[in-house]
Structures are given as structure tokens and as C-alpha cells.
Amino acid sequence: MADLLGTVLSDEKETENKDKKKEKRPWDDIPRSGDIGKTPDLAETLGFYDINAVRQEERERDNSDPSLARFMCAELTRGYFLEHNEAKYTERRERVYTCMRIPRELEKLMIFGFFLCLDAFLYVFTLLPLRMLLALLHLLTLPCCSLGGSRLLQPAQVCDILKGLITVLCYSMMHYVDYSMMYHLIRGQSVIKLYIIYNMMEVADRLFSSFGQDILDALYWTATEPKERKRDSIGVIPHFIMAVFYVFLHAILIMVQASTLNVAFNSHNKSLLTIMMSNNFVEIKGSVFKKFEKNNLFQMSNSDIKERFTSYVLLLIVCLRNMEQFSWNPDHLWVLLPDVFMVIASEIAVDVIKHAFITKFNEITADVYSEYRASLAFDLVSCRQKNACTDYSDSVARRMGFIPLPLAVLLIRVVMSSVNVQGALSYSCVFLFYLGMVTLKVLNSIVLLGKSCVYVKRANMEDKLFEKPPTAAPGNTPSPTSKTSRCTAPSGDLSGDPWSERSPSTPSCTSIPSSSITTQPTPTVIPTPQAETVAPPATSPTTTPTRPSTSPEPDPATLTPSPPATPEQNEGDGTEGTELKHRTPKKDLLDVDRFTICGNRID
């Protein structure tokens, strides 16, 4: 009986143990380390169980009903860790640092570009008259018997004489334009009309600058290109007349701008001046939300430099006209200075905000402005060489769209009408002032040349300054399909260098775009219908025989660009294949020329 009772009790205990094992414990769902078994009494923080966490979970399950107190407690005590997304926050911080560096780097570029424009502008008043006199003296002193077949003047001397004649003729034509009548005619218009007129003048100024340099380049090349017959020189006359009318019309356009700005300064409520300043902030809307690449930003930066320098000259003209009306009373100058500083401050603020957000949205670093500065410096240094293809003032005009001749003609007209020069003392003061301008020009050129050499050396571009242009063999004439030039750099030496040498974009000196950024489509020979592969140039029936050389080139007439890659070929490249088919070839910074006046133009 006792044995039977003990057996029954043992069976009941085994049954209870099995039921307990079947019961699911609350910590069974907690993930455990693979090497450590179940240890209910240990905490799992680093591979072990945490009994406190298990009990807390049990209490939360028991109290599953929502309550406001529990929600507020969770909101006040919950935490997060920024280091879990370290790359994202580091990138955001770098963007902030870039925006903070933009004003400093941008103003460095603006100051350097301002002095470049000032150097080209002072050249018209100081060295151009002297060079013109020397060229005329050289022309008059040449003995007529020893001319032979040589040129009367060097190309640079011919260009100097043409520039001087254009300046003199346009200045004489400006005497027939009454500045006072234009001022009162503009002042009689309403504020809205003046605002529209000022905007129209800005657009017309950009268009005139774009087309004007082409007119001047065409005149210089027509006058200096080698001619087989003397009758070919007659073509210079229509080009010269066209250039004179262009400079005259552009000077009148700038005069209208200066008159409108003068009316804004002299208005009683300053409403027109406020509207004109707000027009600068509208430029932010038209520029910030567009896609900009490195070259496009360089174009816009050069355009901003030109606009800022032109604004300073317009403010100078306004101050001269106002001081003349008040008999050069110095007290009136202090009345004008607050408005002048307000206009300058608005220009600087708009440029800083615009460039800061453009670099932020397009992920462009602030170091790109040092590259822009080095590119401008390279233009200055290269134009000082003996084998230079163009004058420095023309190089600045092509790069920035700044043409100094119309602005110089207008400034001479305003100064001569505002200042009365009578007597020997007045002429002595004028001569001393001219010597001061020459001194300023020389000092500015020396400082700019020294700074430019430093910038070029930092950018590792000094080797390109010593590259000689290739000389064409006698008797070899270029084919109509080939684009050669007298001042093109060797393409084989610059294929891997991101800073390719830029030849100014004149008809006499064209440049070959660098292929360092994007590769141009490689020419392939058209295959025959019977063959599936491209035959070699030497045996292909569709190619013409060429001269034996180390690098034979097939006939351009039988070459076609390679077809775009198929989708099967671009599977490994992702979306790069589709993007490259619609992307235009990029240019190097040294290939960006006078189209910089269209600052918002996207290639």
C-alpha cells in the first residue's frame, strides 16, 4: 500500500514538472547569445539576461491600458544618439562651414577681379594714348623707299590706332547728346516707368557687351590679317564704321543708366532707389534655384565682377553730376555718401547670399573660388609674354564681358562737361592728374602681376607659360574641315592636365577645347555591310589612304561618332550611360570666355 502511494505521488510530481516546462516564460522571447544558454538569474545587456528588464516588460504587459501620464513620461524620458548617423551630420556641418567661408573667398575673387577691370580701364586713359602716338610717329617717320613688302605697322600698333580713333570719334559724337535734357526727360516719368527703363537698360547692356566684343575682334582681325592684294584692305572701312556706331550706342545706353540712377538719388522719398535696390534681390530668385556646375558658376562670378565695377563707375558719374550742380560744395557730398554706401552694401549682400546658396544647393566647395582666381591670373601672366595672342584689355573683355571703351568715352564726356579747364594752372593740374593716373596704373599692374604669379604657381600652371605655340611647316595649308590656329597648345601634352592653356577666342587665335573633363566621342570607321567588325584604317575600303606617320589619321569624311552604348552595355554603370548621352561636353575653366556676361546661362 505504501509503495503504491509513493508511486502515485512521484507520477504527480513529474506531471507538474512537465506542465511547468511547457509554460512559456516571459524571457524566452528575449534574444540570447549563441554561446550562452538560458540563465534566468543573469542579466542580458552584453549577451546575458537582464531580470530587471524582464520584470519591467511584465509590468508593461499588465498595464497595457493607455494613459496620458505614461505617454508624457515616455516623451520626457526617451533618448536618441546622433552618432548613429555620423556621416549625415558631418556633411551638414561641412555645408555650414562652406557657407561661412563663401563671403571671404568670394570677396577675394571680387577684389582681384575689380583690380583687373580697373587695370584695363586705366589702360584706355594712360597707356593707350601714348601707344597710339608712338604708332603714328613710327608711321610718319618710315622712309617710303624702304618699305618693300614688309608691313607698315605691327598688328598691335594697328589695333592701338584703331582703338584711339574709335575713342576720339565717339567722344566727338557724344557732344551732340545733351546730358541735362536726358536727365529731365527721365525725371518726368513715373516711378514704374523708370523701374522698367532701368531693367531694360541692364538687359540691353549685357546684349551689347556680348555682341560688341565680336564687332571689335572682327575689326582687329580684318585690319591685321595678311592680305595678298591691297584692295582687300577696303574691308576694314565697314568694320570700322560698325565699331564706331557700336561704341557710341553703348555709351548712350550707359548714360541712360547713369541718368536713371541720378534721378533715383535726387528723388525726395527715395522710392525709386529702393525699388532699384530690391531689383538686385530679385536676381537671387532667378539664380539660386537653378542647377549650376563649376563652369557656370565661374561665368556668373565673372559677370558679378563686371557688374560691380560698372556700378562703381556709374556711382562716380552720379556724384560728379550732383557735385557740379551744387558748385562742388563738399557738404553735399556727405548727403550722397549714405545712398552710395547703401547701394554698394546691397550689391555685396546680394552677391554673398546668391553664391552661398548656389554652392550649398549644388554641393560646390569654397575652394573653387581660388581656382577661378588662378584662371584669371593665368590670363594676365600669359598676356605679358612675347608670343601673346592678344592684348590684356581684350582678354579681360572676352573673359568677363567688360568692354572699357564705351564706359571710358562716357566718363570723359561727363568729366569734361563737369570740370572747366581754363588757364595754365588748370592745365598743369590736368597734367599732374594724368601723371597720377599713370602712376596708379603702373603700381596696379605690378602688384597684379606679382599676385598673379603667386596664384599661378599655387595652381601648378606655371609650366604652361613656357610652352611654345606650334609652327606650321611652309607650304602646308590647313584643310577646310580642320580647325587649326597660330596659338594653339600641343594637345598631346595637355590631355591629362586639368588646366589646359586657353587661347583667346579671336578669329586669329582660336582654342581647342580640353578633353580632360569629359572625353569626346571617339571616331570610328563605318563598317562594310559584309563585315561585323571595324576594319583597320590601312585596309578599310571606306577610308582614303593617308601619309605614313607615327599616328595616321583617317579621312574626316569617312568618320562617324561611335554610337551610344546599348542598355545591355550600361547595366554595370547604372544611370551613367543615360546621363552621358544627353550631357554636353564640359569645358575647362580656361576655355570659358566672354559669354560670362550671361551669368545664368546653363550649358
Automatic annotation (TrEMBL):
The keyword Transmembrane applies. Residues 474-488 have a biased composition (Polar residues). It is a multi-pass membrane protein. The keyword Transmembrane helix applies. Residues 10-32, 578-587 have a biased composition (Basic and acidic residues). Keywords: Chondrogenesis, Membrane, Osteogenesis, Transmembrane, Transmembrane helix. InterPro entries: Tatp1. The chain crosses the membrane at residues 109-126, 236-256, 402-419, 425-449. Residues 503-550 have a biased composition (Low complexity). Residues 551-566 have a biased composition (Pro residues). Residues 1-40, 467-587 are annotated as: Disordered. GO terms for cellular component: ciliary basal body; endoplasmic reticulum membrane. It comes from the Eukaryota. GO terms for biological process: cartilage development; ossification; positive regulation of cilium assembly. It is found in: Membrane. Belongs to the TAPT1 family. This is Transmembrane anterior posterior transformation 1. It comes from Hucho hucho (huchen).
